[in-house]
Each structure stands twice: as C-alpha cells, then as structure tokens.
Amino acid sequence: MFNGIVECIGVIENIDEINCCKTFTIRPHSKLSDIKINDSISVNGVCLTLTDDREYLEFTAIPETLKMTNLDKLKIGSLVNLERSLKMNARISGHYVQGHVDCMGEIIAISHEGDALNVKMTIPHAMRNYIVYKGYITIDGMSITVVRCEKDNFSIALIPHTQALTIAKNYSLNTWVNIETDILGRYIEKFLEARTK
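RESULT FIELD:
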C-alpha cells in the first residue's frame, strides 16, 4: 500500500529478460533508507518486490505486469517514479494507492496554464466510470486530482513542485502512463451489485 507521494526518481541502469520476465536494475537519485529485500516499492505506480539492494535496486516483472503497465516500454536510461510502501503511523498526504495498475493511458495533449502543467490522456472504455471529476487518480504512482472528465479521456493539472520531483516533467505526446483508479469507487460498485442480486 502506498499514498501516491513520489519520494524520488530512479534511472534504469540495466534490463535482463529471462523466460518472458524482465529484471530491472534501478539507481535512485537519492537514497531510500529503511528498505530491505522483499519490501514492496512502487515503480511508476506498480507495486514490485525488491529482490536486491546491494548497490542498486532490483525488481522482476512477470508477463502479466509487463502486459498491463508501461514497464515493458522502459529502456536503459529511462526515468521512473519511486515510493516506499506506506507506514500506518504516517500521514496520508495523497490517497490509498495499491500499486495494482488498472490500465495504461496515452497522453494526447499537454499545455501550460501559468506554472501549472495540464495533461490530457486517454482512458479505456471499461475504466471511464471510475474517473470522477475532482476525484483521486494515480498516474505513474503520483496521487493526482482529476480536473476534467470527457467520454474517452480525462485531464490532470500538475503543480510545479510535482513537476520538479517526478518524471512528469519529461511527459510528451504519445507517452504511455500507468493508471490506477481509486479503489473506493470499485468497492462501492461491488457492494451495490451484490445488493441488487
């Protein structure tokens, strides 16, 4: 479990592909303290298990994860957002994020409004009911507020601080991002379905 507040950026130093899985070696730009092998770390919003922390961080992604997320598009030199798992005695600065990506979206428009960065992205039809105006959304591990919802896309606005500390500053048209919708909406839908049966 995470809260969508990116702690640092990491750079992909190496990618090994074995038996349809990919192992990523990541060098964080700043040290992530208090971590150990078997910990869950959010990498671009994907909950991955830390398998090596001797020099750099190492994670393995299985085929299902690669299919559902933008991790399969990473190359050596790519930048990723990193966040350690949440401690229950800490403040929730974002929202509850599972690290279970629902889908990917493609960035179709980028504009600036003063210092704010406005980003519009596509959303698959099956996910659009979970995108709520002024609701939470997780984009590449960042807890963000939805500022606009349309039929097949939605928009977010990023403050300068978020732009500076995350990979969002490198977003461009046709970039694919990981999207996790707010789990509360999906639970409510499930409860309502059960009541109508």
